Amino acid sequence: MDKIYEIVAAPRTGRTLVLLVVLFPFLAALFVSLFGKRGRRVALLLALVHLGLAVSVAAIASMHLGTRDELSAGRGTDHAKFEPAMVPGARVGDDGRTAWTLMSLTATPPSAGRAGPFVQFFVGVDGLNLWLVALTSFMVVPAILVSWESVTERRGAFYAWLFVLQGAAVGAFLSFDVILFYVFFELTLVPAFFLIGRWGPGSARRDAARKFFLYTLAGSLLTLVGVVGVVVTNPDPTTGQITFSLPDLMANVQHWLNAAQAEAAAGKPEKLAALHQTQLWLFVALMAGFMVKTPIFPFHTWLPSAYGEAPIGVTVLLSAVLAKLGTFGILRFVLTLTPDAAVAYGLPVVGTLAAFGIVYAALCAYAQKDMKQMAAYSSVSHLGFVVLAVFAFNTEGVAGSVLHMVNHGLSTGAVFALLAFLADRYRTTSMTQYGGLMGRFPNFAVLAFVLCLASVGLPGLNNFVSEMLMLGGLFRADAPKNHHYALAGIAAFSIFLSSWYIMTMLQRVFFSPPKEPPADAPGAAPPGDVNSRELIAFGSLAALCLVLGVYPQPVLDTMRADVRIVTRIGDDARVRVYGEPKPTKVLVAAEPNNGKQDR
Amino acid sequence: MNPLSDPQLQHTFTGVFRLVAPEIALVGTACVVFLFGSAFNRRWIWFTVSLLGVIAAMVLAGTVRTPMPEVLTAAPIVPDAAANFLRWVALISAAVLLFLTWPEATRGHAAEYYGSLLVAVAGVSLTGRANDLVSLFLALELISIPTYILLYLPSRSRPSQEAAAKYFLLSVLSSAVLLFGFSYLYGLTGSTNLSVITDALTKANAEALSPMALVGIVLVVAGIGFKITAVPFHFYAPDVYEGGPAGVVAMLAVLPKVAGFAALARLLGLVGADARHLPFDTATQLPLLLWILAILTMTVGNVLALLQDNVRRMLAYSGVAHGGYMLMGVVVACSLPEAAGTVIKLEGAPKVIGPTVGGIDALLVYLVAYALMTFGAFAVILYLSTPAREVGAIDDLAGLGKTHPISAGAMTVFLLSLIGLPLTAGFAGKLLLFIGTFTAPADTAAMRNLYRLLAVVAAVNSAVGAYYYLRVVGVMYLRTALTPIVGSRAVPTLMASVALAGATVFFGIYPQPLLTAARRAAPVPELPVPAVADAK
Questions:
Q1: First to last CA, chain A
Q2: What is the rounded CA–CA span in Å between residue A46 and residue A80?
Q3: Which among A75, B7, B129, B404 is least buried, having the fewest CB atoms inside 10 angstroms?
Q4: Would you call B439 and A232 a contact, using CB atoms and an 8 Å cutoff?
Q5: B124: Cα separation from own chain's centroid
Q6: CB-based contact B470 A190, cutoff 8 Å
Q7: Does residue B166 belong to any structural domain of this protein?
Q8: How many of the other CB atoms lie within 10 Å of CB of B210?
Q9: Do residue B473 and residue A238 have CB atoms under 8 angstroms apart?
């Protein structure tokens, strides 16, 4: 395997590909904006090129990442830290760090291999972001396909903004510099604002766009304060310099926490208490942006209007990709930068809100007349589940949540894409207008069934795997109190709730007495079943759902080492917060000698 | 011996002219423009002459060598790094303003317009290098007096006359307050030289708190507060911005603020002298005073901007809010004497790693970013205004995305930069200020966590600010106009706005050149190695 990796991917190739995956969407945006009417064909072509790039990155990276030893992951150093691969701009012999500095806060150049106060263009691939990047690349294709007919105005500009949105999301996933992440994270707002505000079909689109922008910005500005706070309060212990590089920063955070814990063990607990106090405030600030972006109840109120008012292709991207930025941010930054607060307050506080949101949003989804709104609320409900699993902070929880981010992206994106089928034909997605579509559009019905059942979590389809993993993580969450059982129970109940509203919707729309809204123009030919364009869009989504449902192991294999890095931090944090080490077992990749080496 | 026969002192006094050669070139050009302007009042002649004057000043600024005066305690002018940075800011602003104000410098008074502009710019540049209360005051007046003329020049309508009168009266009042404060500083130290004043007050302050010095500095801050539109000295801004000619307002929004912050930093001893030793009490009073001023300014500015329907009034209040953000930099700089730093030992010798951001460097970066986006926003307004139809209400901009895509695009860049969104210069400035407030010591007895609270308040304020900026973006792109704007077709103004938008994005993506320059101008003070570390 190693040999193949060396032959296929000379380091240079991999780095160039990663760089291209980030930059290509922006170039594509410039290019496609030159085209007017014919923009959609060009856009599709460019999206497929990007998909090709992402797939080759995934292929090369998974060969490499899959071979990493989970148990040695992050153990080369004193502290667990992420190990990005294929970093563009890396120095010779130092693959995990880039030399491309955007902003330096020191006059002296860094000594070799040392971190310093630099904001860098630090992007790279690891097991946590690889599949999300692939998802982002892939979902643009159905997003373009379902916008094929419905977007008629200024097509070039529409697809250009779509590519900017994609580029920003890819950049955010790949960033290993905290400021760079924030830059990409906020950059998503601008294209989303214009896409919703200019191309939304409804009359409330401007308000929805503004609400989306302002809500997210308000939260993420506090996140910026939190990020800066973490950076400044955790300088490097040997050089005293602050650092913006996430791997170094998380090592610094652990160093100071461990040092304080050592003092506490020696009978001076003040420092640890003070650090925990600081962690709490930083945790609140960091979470502010991610709670809005995910969204977690009660910060979800922007979502139904934004999803409802956005053109449906954009809703596909918003729900499939952008919502993941919130949960991914929690996983990547909150867990690693404020681990103790995440252990102490993650499940009890944020988890409680998320659990409440799961049930609340599921009931809201059931009550919706409009299918788009129903899917929007169902997305809130599902993402609450992901947040719970992330804060379980153990192997199953983290692995399951990463996998579920991908799966949920596929299935929720697919549900919105399905609605485009109806919206294109009848200009409405109101549930009451439809009935008995099973007989009217048999092919569509089959695809809709597969995708809706995937969203529900039917065994054999993708969501089942990740939901079971997440539930396992929640039941096993190592907290001295037992409230995580209650949270796990609510999460399990939410699976039932989601099947309840999805099945009700399917029953009403596909099986009740035939009914369809009046056609646009009287005398026009009755709308036909799935055409080849839609078949490709829905079929590819359904196929992926099936593949990931049957054989998710390759995805889990690549992320194994990185999940271990996160959980190592979690284990240490639990010791600091609760004071007693609890034995944990690695379930995802059960290898015979795990129990001995693992804490 | 007669002190005046001291050769060093003589060199110091005679060398002054070398130090202000570019300013002399600017004022000289202005004199030529004023003098011959009465004979030939053609716009293109005086535009060219003024531009040549600015270029000449730039050449002089780049070539004339300026050694430090030998007797700093007698020198009225210091050519230090901060002064040079501000000079370049002023000169580049002058070049931008010449292009930007093209449609306003109309035939009747082009010469007066350009002449006043050059004098005001010379004033900004001189403020940056004044080392004496007298030269500082003169430099500040050199900005104010041409501004009165500029505001009165095209004043044909009532609002613009009101604007001019209001600005004149309040400006004179603030000058008087400033002078009154200066008199305290002189009375306490017996000198008008800033180096002497700073040293004397620092020594006095080390022994006991001086209430008189505090009275003096409070009056000075009040006087300068007018220039930087700090609340509660901001009342003139909205009326003047609304009534004044857009080009003059662009100048008024930026130049006095640059000069005001330069003067404030000099008077508080934050640049030039050893920043570890401040002439005023830094433990509580001074940072607290500026802290309150910063929070009041940004909050009041943002909240009042929310209520505006006129784009100029909105920009006026937004300028107030940005003054508040910039004050954060001064607050941080004031806190530095309390900074502890981390002691590390690398290869034997202990070393102290001080704060990463000094405050004044962040302030300078933010000032440049603010200048870019404010000039830009007014350039777009000026470009779209015609004498028949001034752009005033926000709704006038409706549908701009379709009718004037270039202007709308540039305006969007400026507004996003004012919000502080990434990839714009405004973000770089805000990020530095945030880092600065977090590097300020959090464990002092008096201020405790107040510095960090300042960052949180600023973040919340930025989110509030996003509301009204985004409203303008929404109007431009998401609405259609009932009566579309024609626009003035002034190519130089359009060129200026496009160039400013380009610079805003460039410094957003790659702020390093700007940051390096700012940090050379205001280096982060190095902390001394504490005695305890040596003992270890």
A1: 30
A2: 38
A3: B7
A4: yes
A5: 9
A6: no
A7: no
A8: 17
A9: no
CA nearest A168: which of A180, A143, A185, A193? Answer: A185
Q: What is the mean predicted confidence (pLDDT) over B135-142?
A: 94
User: Taking a C-beta distance cutoff of 8 angstroms, is the pair A317, A329 a contact?
Assistant: no
How far is the C-alpha of B184 from the C-alpha of A277, rounded, in Å? Answer: 45
Selected for mutation to probe chain B from A22, A105, A114 (highest B CB count within 10 Å) is A105
- Read off the amino acid at residue B471: R
Nearest CA among A428, A454, A294 for reference residue A361: A294
Q: Residue A531: exposed, middle, or buried by beta-carbon count in 10 A (0-12, 13-18, 19+)?
A: middle
In a domain, B173, yes or no: no
Please indicate, yes or no, if residue B423 is contained in any of the structural domains.
yes
* Six-digit token string for A155: 């097509």
**Residue A225, min C-alpha distance to chain B (Å):** 7
> What is the average per-residue pLDDT within B268-296?
77
Q: Which residue has the tokens 């960090």?
A: B452
Paired tokens of A419: 């609605």
- Say if residue A582's pLDDT is above 80: no
A interface test, pick of B416, B435, B468 with most A CB neighbours within 10 Å: B435
User: B426: domain range?
Assistant: 282-530
CA angle, residues A179, A130, A71, in degrees to nearest 5: 95
- Rounded to 5 degrees, φ, ψ at B34 are -60, -45
Does position A41 have pLDDT exceeding 50, yes or no? Answer: yes
> What's chain A's length in residues?
599
Could you read off the pLDDT of A504-550 as tens digits, one per residue? Answer: 888 888 888 888 777 666 666 677 788 888 888 888 888 988 898 88
Structure-token pair, residue B1: 């011996």
> What would the two tokens of residue A342 be?
């995440």
* A287–chain B nearest CA distance, Å: 14
E-state strands within B193-260 = none
Rounded Cα gap, residues A190 and A161, in angstroms: 9
Residues 6+ apart with CB under 8 A from A496: none
Residue A477, both tokens: 């969450």
Chain B partners of A117 at a C-beta cutoff of 8 Å?
A: 356
The answer to whether residue A197 neighbours chain B at the CB level (below 8 Å) is yes
DSSP secondary structure letters along A374-407: HHHHHHHHHHHHHHHHHHH-SHHHHHHHHHHHHH
Amino acid at B303: V
Q: Is residue B222 part of a domain?
A: no
Instruction: Give residue B411's Cα distance to chain centre.
Output: 21
DSSP state of B525: P
pTM (predicted TM-score):
0.92
Q: How many Å apart are CA A322 and CA A189, to the nearest integer?
A: 10
- Rounded Cα gap, residues A56 and A43, in angstroms: 20
- Phi, psi of A31, deg, nearest 5: -65, -45
Q: Is A469 on the interface with B (CB under 8 A)?
A: no
Do residues B231 and B294 lie in contact, with contact meaning Cβ atoms separated by under 8 Å?
Answer: no
Tell me if A322 sits within 8 A of A373, measured CB to CB.
no
Best probe of the A interface among B353, B361, B471, B506, by most A CBs < 10 A, is B353
